[in-house]
Design a protein that fits this description.
With 87 residues, this protein is an alpha+beta fold. It has helices spanning 23-30, 37-59, and strands at residues 4-5, 11-13, 63-69, 73-80. The longest helix has 23 residues, at 37-59. Helices cover 36% and strands 23% of the residues. The protein is built from two helices and four strands.
Length: 87
């Protein structure tokens, strides 16, 4: 998970599957082979994990926003921490 400050919100959530460091994946990215099954796996797996993380945070009481940025990508943001922890 990547923690990155983005204005005007607090934290964005991102996750990259371990395979993104593999030579096979790097080759697909460099050749812009977006039709590759490996490329599709990385995109889909990342979206599933990030959405799950957002739902866990939301259920835990955090304020979460899935922001559709620039019409191409989503920025998954944690807007605020718990004011009153529930534990």
């Amino acid at each position: 998970m990547t923690r990155m400050t983005v204005e005007p919100f607090e934290v964005t959530i991102d996750w990259d599957p371990p395979v993104t460091g593999s030579p096979e994946y790097v080759e697909k990215v460099l050749t812009e082979d977006v039709t590759s099954g490996l490329f599709s796996y990385v995109v889909n797996a990342s979206e599933i994990i990030v959405r799950a993380l957002c739902e866990v945070l939301r259920e835990a009481g955090f304020q979460v926003l899935i922001d559709h940025a620039l019409g191409e990508t989503y920025n998954d943001r944690v807007l605020a921490a718990l004011r009153f922890p529930t534990f």
